[in-house]
Amino acid sequence: MKKNLNTLIKGVCVFLLYILVPYVLDMFLPSLTKSNSFELLYRFMFLFLMLIIFVFLYRKDLLNDLKAFKKDKKKVLLNALMSFGLMLIGIAIISLIVTSITGNTNGSSYESSSVIDSLFQENKLLMIFYVFIISLFTEQIVFRKVFKDIINNKIFFVIFSGMIYGLFQVGYNLSSSSDLLTLLPYTYMGIIVSSSYAKTDNILTPCFVYLLYDLFVLFAFTFNI
Hints:
With 225 residues, the chain is mostly helical. It contains nine helices and no strands. The longest helix is centred in the N-terminal third of the chain and has 31 residues, at 2-32.
């Protein structure tokens, strides 16, 4: 009982920290510095520090997952590859459905207004490090590890974590009922990734899924596919 309570408290603290840190940075950094370069650097430092805190809090579980991966790489990598394939196929189908309903042929019906995204566009190197290291590992800990430790039922964990992930990706940009459709691809992505974690019980599996997806997006963006 005490262990479950400690797990719950730790998970809630991690989730709240994930929400509050970007919010606090958005509030105070613009007034503290007039330089976008310094603001970018400060954001990078604080977000990286937050990731280090998360890794430290879950260090034992992460090390155990790393050891398990070394013993059975095939299980993790194959599951990640299959999940990545399902993700691409599902997103393509969902995008076609959303397009047929909204008539929007330019992809998403909203434009990201994330301060973090716009700032990191100014420094490609930091943006790559942010996407492939900070964001990748932070999101797997927050949306996968935290919820899986708290929720015992695998099916409920997969659906709930997927929905919460979708809401956090686009929820702040919803301005109309039609924008709710933009939740579908992100929720689907979250469900697929959480399912890969539930199947292997190794946090590295969803990390590899998103690594493959981010590499695919980078490739498509670079060659304008």
